[in-house]
């Protein structure tokens, strides 16, 4: 009998993280659904079905990550896939961003990702296998106004993806990133519908002329999570309808 794979998806009780957890659960992968809010995370797991397990933890609590990951490793007997999806954003004029605001975004998007990746990689090293998938952003591909801290954090994620891939390849661990373009979520739909000029700009520079679906990101993550990408590591894959090369 084939052993059931185990995944951890951070920030998975809504949006792209939820879509990714849904894909993994549907493929028979035991998926630890991470979120800060207990009620919201448990509700998401109910919706996702029997392969979803709530994993309540605020990744800003760096000191709690090690014990939490160790517990999952013991309970599940392996961690085969880690999807680093949790992240926060803030739109604000560059000149008005405070040191503290900048630091908060880096703390969650960079330090939190690093800390959980390090702890999960310790377990993957013992298995001599594993796949870590980071969620990057178009903000790391080109300049987007009013998101200086977020842009810095996602550019760091791209650099970390390559560095982690080099450091961890010797242990059979692959590390890749997916960089979503403009994806249709309830949040983005509302933002773009309220700003027709921005919506037209987004669509006009996207060669495919439409927004992506959360399932498009989930499919790309699944590719990196499985043996379909067995010889792929250190790559950043834009899933953006051509937005990053559009003119």
TrEMBL record:
EC number: 1.-.-.-
SUPFAM superfamilies in alphabetical order: NAD(P)-binding Rossmann-fold domains
Enzyme class per UniProt: oxidoreductase
Keywords for this protein: Oxidoreductase
InterPro entries per UniProt: NAD(P)-bd_dom_sf, Sc_DH/Rdtase_CS, SDR_fam
Pfam families assigned to the protein according to its UniProt record, in alphabetical order: adh_short_C2
Superkingdom classification of source: Bacteria
Molecular functions per Gene Ontology: oxidoreductase activity
Family: Belongs to the short-chain dehydrogenases/reductases (SDR) family.
Entry protein name: SDR family oxidoreductase
Species, as recorded: Autumnicola musiva
């Amino acid at each position: 009998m084939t052993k059931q794979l185990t995944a951890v998806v951070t920030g998975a009780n809504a949006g792209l993280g939820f879509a990714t957890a849904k894909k993994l659960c549907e493929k028979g992968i035991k998926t630890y659904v991470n979120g800060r809010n207990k009620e919201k995370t448990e509700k998401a797991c109910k919706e996702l079905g029997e392969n979803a397990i709530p994993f309540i933890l605020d990744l800003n609590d760096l000191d709690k990550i090690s014990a939490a990951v160790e517990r999952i490793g013991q309970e599940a007997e392996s961690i085969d896939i880690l999807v680093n999806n949790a992240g926060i954003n803030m739109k604000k004029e560059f000149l008005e961003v405070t040191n503290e605001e900048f630091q908060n975004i880096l703390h969650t998007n960079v330090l939190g990702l690093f800390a959980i990746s390090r702890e999960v990689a310790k377990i993957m090293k013992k298995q001599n296998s594993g796949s870590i998938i980071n969620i990057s952003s178009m903000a790391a591909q080109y300049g987007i106004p009013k998101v200086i801290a977020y842009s810095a954090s996602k550019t760091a994620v791209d650099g970390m993806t390559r560095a982690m891939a080099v450091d961890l390849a010797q242990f059979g661990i692959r590390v890749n990133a997916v960089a979503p373009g403009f994806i249709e979520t309830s949040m983005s739909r509302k933002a773009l519908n309220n700003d027709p000029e921005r919506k037209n700009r987004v669509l006009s520079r996207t060669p495919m002329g439409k927004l992506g679906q959360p399932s498009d990101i989930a499919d790309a993550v699944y590719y990196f999570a499985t043996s379909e990408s067995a010889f792929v590591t250190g790559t950043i894959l834009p899933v953006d309808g051509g937005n990053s090369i559009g003119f």
